Amino acid sequence: MSGAPGRPVRVVVCDDQMLVRTGLVTIIDAQPDMEVVGACADGRAAVDLARKERPDVVVMDVRMPVLDGIEATRLLAGSGVPDPVKVLVVTTFNLDEYVYEALRAGASGFLLKDAPPDRLLHGIRTVASGAALLDPEVTRQLVGRYASRIRPSEDVGDREVPLTPRELEVLRLIADGLSNSEIAAALVISQETVKTFVSRILSKLQLRDRVQAVVYAYRRGLVS
Hints:
Layout: E1 9-14, H1 18-29, E2 34-40, H2 43-53, E3 57-60, H3 69-77, E4 86-91, H4 97-105, E5 109-112, H5 117-128, H6 136-150, H7 165-175, H8 180-187, H9 191-205, H10 210-219
Parallel strand pairs: 1-2, 1-3, 3-4, 4-5
Helix pairs in contact: 2-3, 3-4, 6-10, 7-9, 7-10, 8-9
């Protein structure tokens, strides 16, 4: 789901700290192309509110009472969830293991709470549009730190991956944390061609976004 043309992006904010929650609501509601349709202080309330309001994006804290942001994300955006809701995780902890688990649970990306307001707003718009929000440098650090947890004990091999050699090459570069422009430069192709390859890869592997593509590549032993 994404903001339809002519109407604001509908957002639910979930954070157990009142000052943070109020600040997020104020920043988001001040934008002409966004509106906050609900705010809450725990994961269970976020799940109930999101299922009721069907927002375009849920801005979700990680550590909360009753139900944490990871489980709430899994219930809203996890595999097998019909009509999943897009979740943007906002956390105090850079590369905290909970953030990794939230991405596995189905989050479309994450930001740090000390990020400037314009980055938060860009993140909401990015996730609402259907794209993933995972900075290339953060990707490198994330998979570097957690590769042992997502890499299989044995390599699956290219033959069992339904991609062409060129698509495999692009997938490996995505997993290495390269942006579209960096992939284009590395392969000497246009950014539009890279976007086409990325779309094909996601479609063939039935993945939602680049975040899932990175995890897929490491799980299948396609990168080291």
